[in-house]
User: What shape does this take?
Amino acid sequence: MDIVLATFQEMSWVTLLTVFLGTLFGVILGALPGLGSIVGISVVIPFTFTLDSPSAIALLLGVYAGSIYGGSISSVLINTPGTPQSACTAFEGYPMAQQGKAGEAIGWATMASVLGGCFSCLLFIVFAPQLASASSKFGAMELTALVLLGMSSICTLSAESKIKGIFSGLVGLMCAIVGQDPMTGEVRFTFDFYPLMSGITLIPIVVGAFAIAEVLARVDAITRTEQTNPISCAGMVLPSLSQLLHRWKILLKSSFIGVIIGILPGAGSTAAAFISYGEAKRSSENRDNFGKGEPDGIIAAEASNNAVTGGALVPAMALGLPGDAVTAVMLATLILHGVVPGVRLMQESPTIVYSAFITLFVANILLIPCGMLVMRGFSQLLRIPEPLFLPFIYLICLLGAYSSRGNSLDFYLAIIAGAVGIVFRYFSIPVAPLVIGLVLGAPFEYSLRQSFIVTEGNIMGELIEHPIAVFLLALTVVIQVLPWISSMRARHRQKAAQKQSQS
Assistant: This one.
């Protein structure tokens, strides 16, 4: 604790100003569809060379935290996830905005983001060595079981029709395996179309299936002279302390899920958001309101994906293992500044490590004022007449899809995904399972094949030697069986009540 206090006291005003500017820039970038953390950090890397190491770390972490949160603003106001991990926020935030509660929806997203991010930082400061040790125990079989747990949320999110949900998830899985084989490098399912060699990435699919499909639906409503509810937002409305305390369980559980997934290399904040959202829909007292504008869904998604930021720094700083592309770019930048992440860094320069997490803690607090500033700009955009506003959103979506990789294929994939989203809406097929399949398909295939290699094809025989994997698989089975048991009990009670009424 003395190290933490000493590190906090040594922070200069330049570092604090840098983290504020980085957070503000990250929120703006995250709110623009298709951009996000990796683009933001790549843009600010040249500016870090004019700063000292603490200020450079502050700039990177500010952009990191701000960009993940920023996607929630566009998700709520225009049903356009600024970042892939904000897709779950749109499931509940946009229906709230249509009900005239856009300010409340962004308020819930902001507080969940702040508390989730701060929770992960505090947890690291207290349990850094233990968390680093836990992350090193996750091998291929444990990651396979974890991804299976996440994929089980497809059924949870498809309560109305599991068949349609599974179909949607299979479409996502099929998209995930297009391109180069992750193990051998062989090209597959490209149909000799060269641009598909790079695969189908998440951003154009999310932008198309959610944002472009929403724009097309709104255009159709206008041409049919149907009444549409324009989104209006006077400002952010933060929840009261009593409202937060009423939902503390789901906030704490979602933050914990985000931290755990964050410390696992390759998982990422998008997977954390979907897993947490699926768990919230299963266990929340207000589960029947999900999809209609339920704050619990916003809390689950935003608390978990922001808690990932602190969790992802555990293997990155303590072990030198990047969990995703974002932390990989951050690690490369730190090395250029003479900061070499790894076990020795924890032992020889603990002040640098703790400085990073204190800076991330400050960045999460700054999400509130930065969110208010950015939201004012978006509120002005919403005053534009809808026939003029919709083409602007459509253009922004296409530019965001293209800029994610600079690949013209993504431009056309976004348009195709928009058409698929419209078809899914017509047949009442949920889009969320498609995104889950696309997000988790590649890590599932890679970890499963690694498991076959490690066990020489005898996964079931050696499963007992991996208690963490056994626990996660058992949890997956329990989550799937419990709703069936509950429905059976409900039917039994209903029949018993009918017999009593007849007698």
Remarks:
- The chain has a mean pLDDT of 77.
- The two ends are 69 Å apart (CA to CA).
- The first strand starts at residue 179 and ends at 180.
- Residues 132 and 314 are 6 Å apart (CA to CA).
